[in-house]
Amino acid sequence: MRTLLIATLSILARAAAFAAEPQPECPTPIKVGFYGCCYFYQQDRGIDVEILRTLAERSGCEFSSTYMPRARVWHDMALAHLDMTTMGIETPERDEFAWFLGYLQTKYLAVYRPSQVSIKSLEQIAAGKMTIGMVRSFRHGAAIDAMIDDLKDREPDRIVEVRDEMALFRLLAAGRVQVVFAEMPLFDYAVRQLKIDDAVTLDVAPDEPPAVRALTLSKARFNQTEVAKWRALLDGMRQDGTIDRILRRYLPADEVRNTSLAAPYLRSSEISKAASGHLNPSAAATSTTIRASAAIQPAASIASSAGAAKPLW
Fold first, then answer.
1. 36, 140, 143, 157: which could join 108 in a potential S-S bond, CB 3.0 to 4.6 Å?
2. What are φ and ψ of residue 32, in 5° steps?
3. How many CB atoms lie within 10 A of CB 116?
4. Average pLDDT over residues 210-219
5. Residue 198 lies in a domain
6. Residue that finishes a domain, picked among 174, 202, 230
């Protein structure tokens, strides 16, 4: 009885704390575009889905979401056809139409197969003849993006662009490209699913900090006052450990540390890669409505299911 009472009081205290904060105004559903894959978005499950679910619970807002290619998400954000997206990386161009509220951090690493090519540095990639794969509208960090932009001008045949991350790794598996760039969570997921047993990673921009991944809000819908309310909700999720708890459902311990904004990023030489769970890939597009409701299942139980739109919970 005492344990139940303490738990109940804890829940009531948290609810009161959320209610005390100024809540965002959302007279109509917030239109969200998902474009991630793997551990971040997998049909109606994943890290970003859980982030949005928690925001729905704490804000009382309703989210109407659609999965679409990354380039389409940024096109629609720029035209104010979408109100929000996740995992955004801030750039001067995107600052024109969006606010960025950081909640995760990731570092893009070069991924290659030693049986096909040997890589020691970013300069070697730029000076060589190897073909590079990338996802349209990807931003990888200043150094990598500068190299890619330069190659697009000088040697465009060396750059192969695809619509999503799994297509990128399929090219690597087939030997059609020799180098791709990916974050460790994506690398871990893709090489397991596609059984690319000999793929390895290399940090080719070791002095560059990880990119902050942000909840991205349209300036056409949200003013500074509203943005401050969403920032407070995200800050609360980070401070009370909610974001880290979500990450731990999907990622190994070292990647939780490196993805969390709450801890300093460790270089790959400082950590040992741990095994993680499996998700089933799916390329199907879905439209869904996000509401606060039932509990999410652990990552290990997630399975893809193509088909009609359905509630996330």
1. 140
2. -115, 135
3. 14
4. 94
5. yes
6. 202
The CA-CA-CA angle for residues 96, 98, 100, to 5°, reads 120
CB count within 10 Å of CB 186 equals 24
Average pLDDT of the chain, as a whole number: 80
Closest CA to 219 of 98, 90, 47, 79: 98
Give 280-301 pLDDT, tens digit per residue: 333 333 344 443 333 333 333 3
Domains identified in the chain, total number? 2
pTM of the model: 0.72
- Residue 19: in which H helix or E strand, if any? helix 2-20
Contact partners, residue 209, CB within 8 Å, separation at least 6: 265
pLDDT (tens digit per residue) in 85-112: 999 989 999 999 999 999 999 999 999 9
* 197 shares its domain with 216: no
Q: What is the pLDDT of residue 41?
A: 86
Domain range for 218 is 26-106+211-280
Alpha-carbon gap, residue 63 to 313, rounded angstroms: 12
Length of the chain: 313
- pLDDT at residue 266 greater than cutoff 80: no
Alpha-carbon gap, residue 277 to 134, rounded angstroms: 25
Say which CATH number the domain at 156 has.
3.40.190.10
